[in-house]
Amino acid sequence: MQTPRERFIAALERRPLTGRVPHFELVFFLTMEAFGRLHPSQRQYRQWIQMEEKERELHRRDMAQLYVDTAERFEHSAIFIHPNPGDVEETCRLIDRIRDISGDRYFIMMHGDATFSIPSGEQMVGFSYRLADEPEKVHAEAAAMVDNAIRNAEQYARHGGLDGFALCSDYCFNSGPFLSPNQFGEYITPYLARLIQAQRDLGFYVIKHTDGNIMPILDQLLQANPHALHSLDPQGGVDMAEMKRLCGHRVALCGNVNCGLMDTGTDEQVIESVRYALRHGMPGGGYIFCTSNCIYTGMRLSRYELMLDVWRKEGNYAG
After folding, report:
1. pTM of the entire predicted model
2. Helix (H, G, I), strand (E, B), or coil: what is residue 59?
3. Nearest CA to 248 among 268, 229, 262, 265?
4. Is the dihedral of CA 148, 185, 121, 290 positive or negative?
5. Cis? peptide before 181, omega within 30° of 0
6. Closest C-alpha to 292, from 192, 120, 170, 119
7. What is the largest CA-CA distance in the chain?
8. How far apart are CA 29 and CA 227, in angstroms?
9. Measured in Å, how far apart are the chain's first and last C-alpha atoms?
10. Tens digit of pLDDT for each residue in 241-289?
11. Nearest Cα residue to 243 out of 283, 204, 272
C-alpha cells in the first residue's frame, strides 16, 4: 500500500496510479472553522518574540499537529507549510515536528520562489521604469535573489525532511502575464530555470505556481523544467483539456477547479467544474487534484466538502 507521499511523487513523475487521484491544497485557511484553531500564517510574530523556549516548542508542535490534522481530515497527500517565523533554522524545526507526528506519510513542501512577481499597484510604475532605465541593476537583483534561494535550499537539503518547493511568484493577470513574453524571457525565465535546476539537483521536487492566463508564456514555463504546474486557472482562460493535450506528456498538472465558482457559484457549477478537471486531468496520470488557487478565508467549508465528495466518488483510477 503506497503512502500519500509516495502517490504524490508518482503523480509528479507522471507514473501510472490506481485508486484515488492525489489531492492537496496550496493553503487551507479554514482551520478556525474546521478545527477551532488559527492558521499558522495568521498568527502574530510579536507574540513569538515574547515567548520563552518552552512556549515556542508548544507553538511549533501545535502548528505541526494542525498541518497533519488538516491532511488527515481532508485526505491531502502533501502538506504545504507556512513557517511562522520563517527563518531557515526555525523552519527546519517545524519540519522535524511534522515528521515526528506523521513520519514519511505526507509530502512536505514550502514556498521557494525568488523570481520577480507582479508588483503591487504602488510599485508597478517604478518597476516598469527600472526595466527601461537600469536593466543591469534589475538583472543583478534577479540573480542575487536566486542565489539566496539556492543557498537556503542547500541548507534544507543538508537538514533533510523537506520533499520539495512550490514556487509561488505570481506572473499573470486573467488577461495575461504582467510582462510581455519577450520581457519575461529576459527577466524571469533564465532565473526561474536556474533556480529550478538547482533545486532539482539537490533532490527536491518543484511545482511552479502562478494564477491567471499563463498561455502566452506556457512555453517558457515548460522550458524552466518544473515537475508540475499549478493552478491552471480557469478564470484566466486556462483549460484543462487543452493543457493536457499541449503539455501533459512533459509536466504534471495541478488544479483547475474554479475558485470563483467555489465561492460565488451554485452547487451545480462547482460539481461541473470538479468533474471537468477530473475528466480531463486524470487520463494517463500526471494529475494532482486541487482548486485553481487555495481554500481561502471566507470560502464556505461546505463548498470544499462538496468538492471532495465529487472527487471521492469520481476521482478514482481503475485497478
Report:
1. 0.98
2. helix
3. 229
4. negative
5. no
6. 170
7. 59
8. 25
9. 13
10. 999 999 999 999 999 999 999 999 999 999 999 999 999 999 999 999 9
11. 283
